[in-house]
Amino acid sequence: TESFVRYCYTQKCPNFEAGNCTLHKPMQCFNYHFEGQHRRPAIDGGGRLLYWDLPCEWLARPARCPRGDLCPLAHSKNEISYHPA
Predict the structure, then answer these.
(1) Mean pLDDT, consecutive 10-residue segments, the chain of 85 residues?
(2) Residues 6+ apart with CB under 8 A from 81
């Protein structure tokens, strides 16, 4: 669904952080549990695309991308997999 693609893994799971996410296994939680799962929202509140589903040259080291969160390319496999394009 649109909300899954738009929001999946964009917010940290407060329940997992507190040690009690009941949706962790099987992986049914909509939020991310580990930093490696985190992804930026692909679409802003106005419906504008924030990045493309093409890998940034810094995909292996997104923290080193000089454009950071403003980069128009994907910084993780999740940003490519869960992209509405």
Answers:
(1) 82 94 85 91 91 94 92 94 86
(2) none
